[in-house]
Specification:
By secondary structure, the protein is mainly alpha-helical. The protein has one domain. Helix content is 88%, strand content 0%. The protein has three helices and no strands. α2 runs antiparallel to α3. The chain is flat.
């Protein structure tokens, strides 16, 4: 939760005008990975291990697609 809030605050405070496109790419990717990790931990706590594996695969695929489609 701390990582998600910290990354969100950086994006909220500085916005796209101050943060360059290269840094924004990594900030948004890190935020997406942190949220996916929180979801995976929550699912694991409820014993949904197959959903955790599916969530990990979707996260990896989504982050790869995001990185490929974003211009630098």
């Amino acid at each position: 939760m701390i990582v998600i809030r910290s990354l969100s605050e950086v994006l909220r405070l500085y916005g796209p005008a101050v943060i360059g496109p290269g840094a924004r790419l990594y900030l948004v990717g890190s935020l997406a990975a942190a949220v996916a990790t929180l979801v995976a931990h929550t699912l694991h706590a409820f014993g949904r291990d197959r959903l955790v594996l599916l969530m990990a695969a979707i996260t990896i695929f989504g982050l790869l697609v995001y990185k490929i489609t974003q211009p630098l």
